[in-house]
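We were asked to recover a plausible sequence for a given structure. The inputs and outputs are reproduced exactly as logged, with field labels preserved.

PROBLEM: sequence recovery
POSITIONS: 234
GIVEN STRUCTURE:
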């Protein structure tokens, strides 16, 4: 089943003289894990922004779960994202003064769909947050601490739990392991992938670390896909 499908996409940043993205076709299937890579500036973050709807293409079609996102009102699009996409970004976007538990459960406050899935899995949203944090090996005594008192590696686990809670169909991760050393990177990836598999989610992950490729079924070298790069940006 197709989860995400892009066709004939053209995207240009405001005031830019060239397109940042020209993509004829890109499909991601349900349960698929996609590794997106390529040199700095080839459009990886731009493509993620497009997929999550932070920016809209000037032309082309983007469908998720059979729904064309451009056809939704902006409020409905926000709701669609909250229901179906979990994010782990480089700068984790955690709310510093909220506790670990509050940061994780926040993802469900904006989505009845994810709340229902979390309750189905563990009885309550808080219990599901605890289960995920435990699976991701965050020490239990930190659960009520403000996240700004955690190490970077610990914050990464909180961000992962927040993305995973309520099993959204798509997890988007932008360099989620960049602040971790080699041992912790492998471990974090294994934990993340185990939970993604349990949830039945798809993953699109951007990374410069090609050692992580082994964890993925599909890899996309963006400069090969993105004709804006092939045409050369001077
Ligand atoms: N917010 C923005 N406004 C204008 N131009 C932007 C913006 N973000 C990115 N760009 C431009 O779009 C192009 C692609 O950048 P993008 O950040 O998507 O590349 P990337 O592959 O993610 O790079 P990196 O690996 O360095 O993060 C670049 O030419 C960049 O200057």
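RECOVERED SEQUENCE:
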């Amino acid at each position: 089943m197709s989860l995400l499908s892009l066709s004939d996409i053209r995207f240009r940043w405001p005031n830019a003289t060239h397109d940042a993205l020209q993509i004829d076709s890109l499909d991601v299937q349900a349960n698929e894990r996609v590794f997106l890579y390529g040199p700095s500036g080839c459009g990886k973050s731009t493509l993620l922004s497009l997929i999550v709807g932070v920016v809209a293409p000037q032309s082309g079609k983007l469908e998720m779960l059979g729904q064309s996102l451009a056809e939704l009102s902006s409020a409905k699009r926000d709701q669609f994202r909250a229901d179906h996409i979990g994010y782990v970004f480089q700068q984790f976007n955690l709310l510093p003064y909220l506790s670990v538990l509050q940061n994780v459960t926040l993802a469900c406050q904006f989505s009845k769909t994810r709340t229902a899935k979390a309750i189905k899995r563990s009885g309550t949203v808080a219990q599901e947050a605890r289960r995920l944090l435990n699976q991701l090996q965050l020490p239990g005594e930190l659960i009520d601490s403000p996240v700004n008192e955690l190490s970077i590696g610990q914050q990464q686990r909180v961000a992962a739990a927040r993305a995973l809670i309520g099993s959204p169909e798509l997890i988007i991760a932008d360099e989620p392991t960049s602040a971790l050393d080699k041992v912790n990177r492998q471990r974090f990836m294994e934990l993340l992938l185990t939970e993604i598999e349990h949830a039945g989610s798809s993953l699109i992950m951007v990374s410069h670390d090609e050692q992580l490729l082994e964890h993925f079924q599909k890899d996309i070298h963006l400069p090969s896909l993105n004709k804006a790069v092939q045409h050369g940006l001077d």
